[in-house]
Amino acid sequence: MRRLVLEQRATPSRTFSLALPALSALGALILGSVPLMLIGADPIEVYRLMLTSAFGSTRGITDTLTDAMPIMLTGLAAVVTFRMNVWNIGAEGQLQIGAVTSAGVALWLGDGANTVFALVAMIVAGVLGGSLYAGLVALPAATWRVDEVVLTLMMNFLSLAFINYLVFGSHSPWRDAFSISFPRGQLIPDSSRLPDLSGRLNLGFVITLAVVFLVAWLLKYTVWGYEYLVVADSRGAASFAGINQWRMIVSSFLLSGGCAGLGGAVLVGGTLGAMEPRALTGLGFTGILVAALGRMSPTGVIPAAIVLSAIVSSGPDLQQIGVPAPLTVVLQGLILVVIAGGEFHLRYRLTRAGSTAQEAHGESAP
Amino acid sequence: MGGSSDRLAVEMTGISKSFFGQSALTDVDFEVRWGEVHALLGENGAGKSALCSILAGLYRADQGSIRIDGHVVDFRSPHDALNAHVGMVYQEFRLVNEFTVAENVVLGDPRLSRRLKWSEVEESVAEAAAAYDIDTDPRQLVGDLSVGERQRIEILKLLYRDARVLVLDEPTSVLTPSEVRELFQSMDALRRSGRAVILISHKINELRASSDRVTIMRQGRKVAVDKLDDITNDDLTRLMVGRKIAAPRTRQSPPALDRPVLEIRGLNVTNQDGRVAVDSFDAEVHEGEILGIAGIAGNGQRELVEALAGLKPVQSGTVRLQRPVGASAGDSAGAIDVTGMSPRDLIEIGIAHIPEDRRAVGVASGLDIGANLCMKSYWKEPLSRRGVMSRSAVRALEDGLRADFDIRGGSRNLPVSILSGGNIQKVILARELSQSPAVVIAAYPTRGLDLGAVANVRDILIGQLEAGTAVVLVSEDLDELFIMSDRLIVLHAGRIMGEFEPADYDRETVGALMSGGTAAGG
User: Fold this and answer.
1) Which end of chain A has less Cβ packing within 10 Å, N or C?
2) Which 3 state secondary structure label does DSSP give B282?
3) Which CATH number describes the domain made up of B8-241?
């Protein structure tokens, strides 16, 4: 009688690792039908509505892509440090500071500036803002091994307080004095607004895609990327090969913060047109989910962000058929749980005891 | 002890086990009698440890049955095994350094009551130690003991739990020659008390000195079992390896002793706790010479090697390279001080390094072979240009070195970790030697490899001498050092205890110096 045993795979299964995100989403949908049925909704109907809401019309598609843009960037920010076992969970704050610096530059340049120059300046300001904010953590983390998780987490509270001050503070010059019902920062001048492509979708999406592919290229084809992969794989081997790890940690932090900061810039300069604290919170943490769903691959964040954006943006439509919108958050959480379970199957497989009988060679046995 | 003499202590039948989808053991039968020391001989990866780990309850067999003293058992944990009087001493000791000897011995003993009195426990441990003739103080911290003493505590721990079948996994690999003799005396005492002792080893001399019978394993299968008195060393080797191993190549040309390449003067290095690890180390290595450094692990070799590779700061002293890469042979004007240089500068100047931890330091094990081969040259053309890697150049490098160094297994884009230990070491050698280094510092380059790979690695290193390379070989395997070295330095507690020419190589003398004694007879 053979029993089922768990067996560690020598290398993670390749096909499975490609199919995992799709399987995770599917698994989450199946699990998600349980709470849906508990509140008396028909899961099939709900999922069909979600699908048509997110992708059923031009308007739906552009909305989904627009909302995918910032989490694609915070997801990329997470990938860039997580791959190296550096845990920058401060994309949240870096995005907010990027929003502040890009809004600041746009407001400072004013209405009369040359549009191309103003756009470039605003984007660069957002990237640098996020990057430098991450740099504040990178230096102590790389130099004295201060725990970057605690630091980046705390920095998120600082940036939130700062952005709240700028928007709500009665003396803040950046506050939009004319907005009565809905507190927000001053609207940035039109010359600094990213032009719309279709519906709410603006030029920021193209910039975002370009940055995702740029980071993917950096990792795969450059000397920096090679050194990055060596440090990510083995710190021991890296120091032995004479790779400066301080430089690699700091530079990945700066790149990560820059990606998140760009997220702030495209929101302020595009989607929002002003600093809106509520619309600028939670994106960094969703980015971590995007990175996980994208399997820590730079280009993987593109489909991952679109899927998560589709789930969230269908919330309002679900409410119309009596399904509470927060249920979309439940679905997001379930996806994360299913991914974690799937990771396990990447590394292990179930086999029947004694069914594999190949020749062992070399050091393969422990 | 343990039933009538016609019952077997251990009877394992048809044991099969696979890891990672690769079978480690195939239909192995293994029998041990009461009152014998039974050696389990085989190369690394032959399945000796896997078989014994199943016996000791660490793994469960996929197939097969185990009887202990005639009773069928099915161990689900080492705890189960110990309850059936079967215990194992692993290569990596399972002791808590911060605990005393007594605390370690009784750790996990179910007989301990909740309200234990340490004085009574210590007394009982002392009694047990006396009964088995083990010299120890129950109140001493295990962290303060030598490796040999710790091993005895591991054995005491099993005896205290009334283990009657004891498995010792490569117990001599960490011991000095005199400690090995003491261990063999203890094993003899255990045999006389009627217990069964299983000795895992791949060293033929050792089991000849200690064991009654031997079971030989190869590639996960049992190939033979015999009395040691009835089998010759040649037969043992042949059965273990399955093929004849060519003797190490003899030297083509003698080293150029008038041409020093690396000069080390008064080198002092501290370990991470700030204690002196290398104490005024002086040495010269010449063109085409292998300088062997003998010593028991932990006597400053690691710090010496890391200091020479630029991974550890040098407290004082100098290291000079007489013939940096680029200068012509014999050109003494090109000598430079390389003390405290960065790893990158040392690589550029021609000091290559075979690190002791090949899987964690020698390679980035998750990256593919090509990425690992270019790790010491990727910043140079043609592998990269203006910050962009050339994939075709990396592939060309991989194909070339794969052929030159006969690297087998794996394929493009698969992690180097799936290669066997010997092939991983060839990847490292290929990378280091293809840079045409002036000096190669090799730390334990053959440790843990099977005999075929050992011969390969040695041949590659010896082949390097013809090009005038100087080699520093750090090892704890005296046979290897005697075969390979043109000169031998013995290190103990960071100090040079003696220097030997090949004519004076002698196990006892060198062994005594390794353990801090004086050279017998000068």
Assistant:
1) N
2) strand
3) 3.40.50.300
pLDDT, tens only, A293-308? 888 999 999 999 998 8
Check for a shared fold between B8-241 and B256-514: yes
Of A10, A241, A353, the CB nearest to B376: A241
Query: Is A91 domain-assigned?
Result: yes
Q: Between chain A and chain B, how many beta carbons pairs sit less than 8 Å apart?
A: 152
Nearest to B163, CA basis, from B108, B86, B90, B89: B86
Domain segments of chain B as ranges: 8-241, 256-514
A57 interface with B at CB cutoff 8 Å: no
> CA B208, CA B215: separation in Å to the nearest integer?
13
In chain A, how many domains are there? 1
User: How far apart are the CA of A294 and the nearest CA of chain B, in angstroms?
Assistant: 19
Q: Which residues of B touch A349 (CB under 8 A)?
A: 21
Query: Which backbone phi and psi does B488 adopt, to 5 degrees?
Result: -135, 130
- Which residues have C-beta within 8 Å of that of residue B3, sequence separation ≥ 6? B34, B69, B70
Please tell me which residue of chain B has the smallest CA distance to A234.
B364
Any CB–CB contact under 8 A between A181 and chain B?
Answer: no
What does DSSP assign to residue B368?
Answer: B
Under a CB-based contact definition with an 8 Å cutoff, are residues B477 and B448 in contact? no
Q: How far is A313 from chain B (nearest CA, A)?
A: 38
Tell me the CATH number of domain B256-514, given options 3.90.180.10, 3.40.50.2000, 3.40.50.300, 1.10.1420.10. Answer: 3.40.50.300
Interface predicted TM-score of the whole assembly (ipTM), two decimals: 0.82
Give the closest of A9, A221, A240 to B20, CB-based: A9
Q: What is the pLDDT of residues A112-129, one digit of tens each?
A: 889 999 999 999 999 999
Q: Would you call B219 and A9 a contact, using CB atoms and an 8 Å cutoff?
A: no
10-residue mean pLDDT profile of chain B (522 residues): values are 67 88 85 94 81 91 92 90 92 85 86 77 89 85 85 91 92 80 90 93 84 91 90 83 56 75 93 85 92 87 91 91 60 75 90 90 92 93 92 94 86 83 91 92 87 85 88 87 91 91 83 70 40
Torsion of CA A268, A271, A274, A277, to 10 degrees: -80
| Nearest Cα residue in chain A from B42 | A362
Closest residue of A to B366, CA-based?
Answer: A233
Q: Considering only alpha carbons, which residue of chain B is nearest residue A243? A: B344
Separation in Å, CA A25 to CA A47, A301, A338, B128: 12, 14, 8, 61
Q: Are residues A223 and B384, on separate chains, in Cβ contact within 8 Å?
A: yes
Is residue A105 domain-resident? yes
A238 vs B: CB within 8 A: yes
Assess if residue A231 is contained within a domain.
yes
A356 contacts on B by Cβ (under 8 Å): 18, 21-23
